[in-house]
Structures are given as C-alpha cells and as structure tokens.
Records
---
Amino acid sequence: MTSSWLPTLDCEDRPGIAAAVSGFLAECGGFILDSQQYAHLDAGRFFMRVEFKAAGYRRVARGVCTGCRAAGAQLDTFIRTIVSR
C-alpha cells in the first residue's frame, strides 16, 4: 500500500498558488487524492490542504515532501504539517 501525504499551507493570498502546488506535485510524480483550499479575504490569507500519494518507495514520497517545503519557501508559504497516512 502506498502512503499518502498531507501538507497544509498558509500564506499570503495571491494568484497561482494552487496551480504552483499542483504543478509541482505533477512534476514529481505525485498523484492528488484530495485538495481543499479557501481564501480569507479580510485577512488576505490563503489556506490549502492537499492529500497526495507518490508512486514508488517511501523515499520518493519524502523527496516530494522536501520539494513541497522548498516550493513553499518560494511562495513565502508556511507549510504547517506534512504527515504520512
């Protein structure tokens, strides 16, 4: 059984965040199982939760998670948790 991973993001709201995250996961061979996001317009914040799996060994999935953190840094995004399920 392939593990799934569940990062949650919190960042300043701006266009392209969901596209950047999903594009990054696609490039790394990640398969999105579920994605939820919303914008808090008054606070100017964007929140996203995306569950994905990565084909292959757990080390591949861990590499994807490391990449998510790097992508988050590029987006000035705070990734709160990445948990394996």
Note: The first strand starts at residue 4 and ends at 12.
---
Amino acid sequence: MPKSKLTRLLITFFFLLTCSVSFGQGLQISGTVRSAARHEAIPYVNIGIKKKNIGTATRPDGSFKITLKEENRQDTLTFSAIGYKELSLPVASILSGSMTVFELTEKRRHCVKWSSAARRLRSKNLVPHRAIRSCTAPRKRFTRTIFRN
C-alpha cells in the first residue's frame, strides 16, 4: 500500500509540474494607452495581431494585459481606436524595451460643409473632437456636413 500511494503522489506531482510549465511559456505584455496630445487614457482601444485571432481591448482607464505565445514574438502588435492613427509595433521591441505606455496621435479630418442656399463648398482641417462643434453652424435652408479622412 505505501508504495502505491507514493507512486500516485509522484505521478500527480509530475503532472502538475508539466501543466504549470506549459502554461508559463506565454509572453505577457501590459501597459496603458493614452493620447499623445492630451496625455489622457483612451478607453476601449483595440489591441491585437492582424490576421490572427489574438487580441484584447483596453479597460476604461486605458490599461490592458495581453498574453501571447512564443511563436508570436516576431509578429506586430497593432493599437487602433476611432479618431486616432493606428500604431503598430513589433512584439520583440516591446518586450526588449519594456514599454508600458503607448501613445496614439489623433487623426485630422477634413470637414466639407455644403449649403444649397449658398451653393458653395467650404473646407477646414479639423481635429475630431472640435469637428462637431465647428461644422454644425446654424442652418439656413439646407446644410450638409461630410467628414472625410
């Protein structure tokens, strides 16, 4: 009997050791995504590797944590959010540089305002958070606002 219990204990210990080693082989990247201009956290930024089913999103405070396999070390991690330019960085450089803060720059949008009363076009280069306020002027007859990248 004692020999059998010892054998079971050793097998169980070996099994648990192998499971912990196989789960410990991932690359873990964590950090915060924020705006480059205002230095504020950006919530719900999409983070992932393109054309692979690997990704996550930032929390409301801009923080994130993603675990990758060793085979993804040569891939590129992409950060994207509406109103911001996409940021792509190699996984190897993120791990070697110990980067924890990732800054996204705002996209500039081209706002075209067309009015049927005046029959002319006016255009401005605007930042997204200002575009709504600047392009929605008091309407005379018919005003239409078009956003283009």
Note: Residues 27-104 form a domain with the Immunoglobulin-like fold (CATH 2.60.40.1120).
